[in-house]
Amino acid sequence: MTATVRAADVAVGTELPEQTYPVTRADLVRYAGASGDFNPIHWNDRVATEVGLPGVIAHGMLTMALAARAVTAWAGDPGALVEYHVRFGRPVVVPDDGTGAQVTVRGKVGALGEDGRARVDLTVTSGGEKVLSLARATVQLA
Question: Residues in domain MaoC-like (predicted)?
Answer without folding.
Answer: 17-120
